[in-house]
Amino acid sequence: MSLSKEEVIKIAKLARLTLTDEEVEKYGTDLNAILGYVEQLQELDTKDVEPMIGAIKHNKDLRQDQAVDSGLQAKMLENAPDKDGTAIKVPQMS
Predict the structure, then answer these.
(1) pLDDT tens across 47-85, in order?
(2) Residue 27 near residue 43, CB atoms below 8 Å
(3) pLDDT value for 53
(4) Is 46 helix (H, G, I), strand (E, B) or coil?
(5) Rounded to the nearest 5°, which phi and psi values hold at 38?
(6) 14 has a pLDDT exceeding 80
(7) Checking phi first, is residue 43 left (phi over 0); if not, alpha (psi -120 to 50) or beta?
(8) Contacting residues for 82 by C-beta, under 8 A, at least 6 apart
(9) CA 55 to chain centre
(10) Residue 41 to residues 3, 17, 50: CA-CA distances in angstroms?
């Protein structure tokens, strides 16, 4: 698959980029090279490859997530100009 100059310009427009003619040529060449690599990858037979989460196997036991009171709420409320219990009061927006 090869991208035309018009397709490169359309992709640039979708990315909200303004390219010069030289940049359109350069990025077109780069994008076509990337697409060539993707086509090579699509030719690989991955039928017997087991899916994995990452390249490195992690056998570590992870700790459980636990909520911990850091004491920051009290410090934050000390600096609030106006508060209501544990909430900071702010002016109403219209």
Answers:
(1) 898 888 777 777 777 888 898 888 888 888 998 999 999
(2) no
(3) 76
(4) coil
(5) -65, -40
(6) yes
(7) alpha
(8) 88, 89, 90
(9) 19
(10) 18, 29, 16
**Domain boundaries, given as residue ranges, for the chain:** 5-42
Instruction: Dig out the tokens for 33 from the structure.
Output: 């090279």
- CATH fold of 5-42, please? Histone, subunit A (1.10.20)
The answer to whether 83 touches 77, Cβ cutoff 8 Å, is yes
Query: Residue 47 gets which letter from DSSP?
Result: T
Question: In the Cβ-directed half-sphere of 21, how many Cα atoms lie within 13 Å?
Answer: 0
Taken as a whole, the chain contains a residue count of 94
The tokens of 32 are what?
Answer: 């076509």
In angstroms, the CA 2 to CA 13 distance is: 18
Query: Which helix (H) or strand (E) segment is 9 a member of?
Result: helix 5-14
